[in-house]
Design a protein that fits this description.
17 helices; 329 residues; 6-stranded mixed β-sheet; alpha/beta; 8% strand
């Protein structure tokens, strides 16, 4: 039986659930519970669809990260999270514990950093990993061992992103997502980028010079081509912003945490305690969806088919020719 580690970006999934499920969903005691219900619904669907042998959840902590300390305006433009959402987080954590799934959180780091570190360690242990999130930041982690899975949302179907899927959607390699944001910024995280550099210019520069370092080497060597004098001036003046933005956009892979696979194995859970908890909330439809056991008997068949399909359709990018590295790991 092949091993597959599923890493859940708890914050991203809770946020998605809160806005996807109606606010009228309440507990038996009348408390709003749409985020809890939605999170559990998505989590159980992920377990059913991805058939993991190992699983873990990571949440952001309500404390500043190293990015906030380096750049005071990081995510500063975001409105304060709804109290109706934050009030549900304790129940979300408790629901994860009732299913005997470990939670990883590290002060000073975002869930993305924790997940990136665990994904790297799974790569080192030769274990396939799938990151479940709705956040495109995780795309930079995709490689031959790590994929990103975005759950269904509204009219959009669930999608699995490997290297080819990232290349098809964004037009560049997964790792180049970092350099793209370093150039044109990311308003959602308040990453500044270089003033005056838009998506089209950023992609053109990345296609030609691979990354920030390649761009500024070409500028230094006076060999940069395809841009006008005004854009050259913007790039030159924006060097420090580009370097700062790249730091902010890069997921950290050395968070002080250790992946212990035994802890993350999909153990049998105390179903009676899980049912009791869900009954207290009034989530009877979720109770009906609880797995009798976590690991499907058809898992090996699924993995075998997937492995054959990947081998048949595999297209290995010519990274050496372009001077690109395959991934962050």
């Amino acid at each position: 039986m092949k091993k597959r580690l599923v890493l859940i970006d708890g914050h991203a999934i809770v946020y998605r659930a809160y806005y996807a499920f109606p606010a009228t969903l309440k507990t038996k005691s009348g408390e709003q519970a749409n985020a809890v219900y939605g999170f559990l619904s998505i989590l159980l669907s992920v377990i059913r669809e991805l058939k993991p042998s190992h699983i873990a959840v990571s949440f952001d902590m309500d404390k500043p990260t190293f990015r906030h300390l380096e750049f005071a305006d990081y995510k500063a433009q975001r409105p304060k999270t709804d109290k109706e959402l934050t009030d549900q987080l304790d129940l979300v954590h408790e629901s994860v514990r009732r299913l005997n799934i470990p939670i990883f959180e590290v002060e000073g780091f975002e869930a993305d950093d924790v997940i990136g570190t665990l994904a790297k360690q799974s790569y080192q242990q030769k274990i396939k990993a799938v990151i479940v999130t709705g956040d495109q930041d995780a795309m930079q982690l995709v490689n031959d061992n790590v994929k990103v899975y975005t759950p269904a949302r509204g009219r959009f179907s669930a999608k699995m992103y490997g290297e080819e899927e990232v290349l098809d959607r964004y037009g560049f390699e997964p790792i180049q997502m970092i350099d793209y944001k370093a150039l044109c910024g990311d308003p959602s995280d308040n990453i500044p980028g270089i003033k005056g550099v838009g998506p089209k210019t950023a992609k053109g520069l990345i296609d030609k010079y691979v990354n920030i370092e390649g761009i500024y080497k070409a500028i230094k060597d006076k060999s940069i081509e395809g841009i006008g004098k005004a854009m050259l001036e913007k790039l030159t003046l924006g060097y420090e912003d580009a370097i700062k933005s790249k730091m902010l956009a890069t997921i950290v892979l050395d968070v002080p945490i250790t992946l212990k696979l035994k802890k993350c194995a999909l153990h049998e859970y105390d179903k009676s305690k899980a049912i009791s908890f869900l009954e207290e909330l009034g989530f009877y439809s979720i109770i009906k969806r609880l797995p009798s056991d976590y690991w499907s008997e058809k898992a090996e068949e699924i993995f075998t088919k997937e492995r054959k399909l990947q081998t048949k359709n595999q297209k290995v990018p010519n990274l050496e020719k372009k001077g690109r590295q395959a991934s962050l790991f």
